[in-house]
């Protein structure tokens, strides 16, 4: 894997450093036309010229406790989603920064049970397809040992009108749109909704088909990537990856990070992300867990790993991604993976960004002092948000809150 070289950087101000364990997303980044757009932990949206990194415009939030956690280009604008009391969606004119419209998802998913980060309404993902903006929002609630979710998936037109809404009592974690269909991955299904994947008609919101790994417990699907005649999913239920055909028919499945004996422990890791093209499929895994509980002294051999497969499901390559990846940046057959905390080993030397080709594997890497938590990729450049981190057993603060912009030369 070659070195990406020294990127350009813009400081984003002060932010409380990340700690050993993940506290959830609080930043977002998007590349569009001549703009680099960043959503910050303070809830602001900042747009920079991609050539000079001069600021083009900025927009502040209307909430004191919201952060921007998702972003996508939408027509000639930019859409961002918040984690905050209102679970707000905001759409800005890309040229001027004028706010075109907003929508508060809390009106549908409910207001927070308490003013604590994980209880705040959360716009988990936004995606555009044609003249529609698709949004997945959720809210978490807890009553003793009982956990529950309320969620809504929307299609908005360019004026901000909700064309249709799909509501469940499950937790959507990612969506993928191709203009014809919208795929929704539900990572937890504790209630009546028991399908880890739902594929909707993008125009009408009607259900085309549903799929589930058929496993016990609440964990279901971590990510979905639509392909021409079906979908690829990362299964949280059985730690496998699936290629599904028309109507959800299983074409193949692979053991991505299934339970493995290490010493006297049985360990597994969740496949959290998936990206598929006609040339191949990539799955990216997360943290190690033990079947006996959350704590473990060992690591699963596929923890924090990108695994590439051929279109027929044959394993082609594997490579480390350093630490926990909160999302993927994708552009055609290429994938950018941000590397954040590795809370078990807390090895700061692995912080950074890694880029892969779905068919050939590792291409480029970028080392950072802090952790990389958000990423965007297009045919010309990559953008990444670096956040400072302090590990509990070290005490040293590494990195700063900034956005990095670079060009990637393939190896």
Automatic annotation (TrEMBL):
The record, for Pfam families, names:
PQQ_2
The Pyrrolo-quinoline quinone repeat domain covers which part of the protein?
27-172
User: What InterPro entries does the database record attribute to this sequence?
Assistant: PQQ_b-propeller_rpt, PQQ_rpt_dom, Quinoprotein_ADH-like_sf, WD40/YVTN_repeat-like_dom_sf
Q: Which organism is it from?
A: Halopelagius longus
Signal sequence, renumbered to the chain: none
The superkingdom of the source organism is Archaea
Q: By what name is this protein known? A: Outer membrane protein assembly factor BamB, contains PQQ-like beta-propeller repeat
């Amino acid at each position: 894997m070659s070195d990406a070289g020294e990127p350009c950087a813009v400081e984003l101000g002060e932010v409380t450093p990340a700690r050993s364990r993940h506290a959830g997303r609080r930043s977002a980044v998007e590349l569009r036309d001549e703009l680099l757009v960043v959503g910050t932990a303070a809830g602001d949206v900042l747009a920079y010229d991609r050539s000079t990194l001069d600021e083009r415009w900025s927009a502040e939030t209307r909430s004191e406790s919201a952060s921007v956690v998702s972003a996508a280009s939408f027509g000639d604008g930019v859409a961002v989603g918040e984690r905050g009391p209102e679970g707000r969606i905001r759409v800005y004119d890309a040229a001027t920064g004028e706010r075109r419209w907003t929508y508060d998802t809390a009106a549908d998913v409910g207001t927070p049970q308490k003013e604590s980060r994980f209880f705040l309404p959360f716009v988990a993902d936004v995606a555009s397809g044609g003249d529609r903006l698709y949004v997945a929002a959720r809210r978490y609630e807890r009553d003793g040992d009982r956990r529950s979710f309320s969620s809504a998936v929307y299609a908005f037109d360019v004026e901000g009108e909700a064309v249709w809404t799909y509501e469940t009592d499950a937790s959507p974690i990612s969506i993928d749109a191709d203009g014809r269909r919208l795929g929704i991955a539900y990572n937890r299904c504790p209630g009546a909704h028991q399908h880890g994947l739902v594929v909707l008609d993008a125009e009408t919101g009607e259900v085309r088909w549903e799929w589930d790994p058929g496993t016990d417990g609440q964990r279901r699907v971590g990510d979905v990537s639509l392909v021409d005649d079906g979908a690829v999913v990362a299964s949280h239920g059985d730690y496998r990856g699936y290629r599904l055909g028309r109507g959800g028919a299983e074409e193949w499945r692979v053991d991505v990070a299934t339970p493995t004996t290490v010493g006297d422990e049985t360990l597994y890791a969740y496949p959290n992300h998936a990206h598929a093209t006609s040339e191949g499929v990539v799955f990216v895994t997360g943290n190690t867990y033990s079947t006996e509980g959350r704590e473990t002294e060992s690591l699963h051999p596929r923890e924090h790993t990108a695994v590439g497969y051929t279109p027929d499901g044959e394993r082609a390559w594997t490579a480390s991604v350093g630490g926990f990846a909160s999302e993927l940046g994708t552009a055609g057959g290429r994938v950018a993976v941000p590397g954040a905390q590795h809370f078990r080993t807390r090895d700061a030397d692995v912080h950074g960004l890694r880029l892969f080709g779905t068919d050939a594997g590792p291409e480029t890497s970028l080392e950072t002092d802090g952790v990389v938590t958000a990423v965007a990729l297009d045919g010309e450049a990559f953008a990444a948000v670096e956040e400072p981190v302090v590990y509990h057993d070290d005490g040293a603060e590494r990195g700063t809150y900034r956005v990095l912009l670079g060009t990637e030369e393939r190896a």
